[in-house]
Input
Amino acid sequence: MSTKRTHARTRFDAPPRHPREAAEERIVAQLAERMRAKLAQRRHHGDWREMAASAVMDALRGEVEELRLAFFGEARDAIISEAVDVAAYAAILVDVLSMEAQYGAQIGVK
Output
């Protein structure tokens, strides 16, 4: 006789969720949606996969400065837009560093 469960999991036998898990899922989905739109708008700028990690880091620094300036003088939508730019460049940096590690490229980061 099989000992496999034959019923769906219920809220009573599911592992407990962390109280913040739903909020975390919401902000990740929200950011992903905004980043996809932002990346699609900027496809004409070229392929980030051809950038060196140091160039991506320079661009990220620039975006952080734009966010700082927006935070102290712009409307909420402009601040959100700049924050999404920062997140997009951070994600690009992760991608470039991951590709460099995978393919053995030399990088300027230790």
Notes: Residues 68 and 79 are 9 Å apart (CA to CA). Residues 48-110 form one domain.
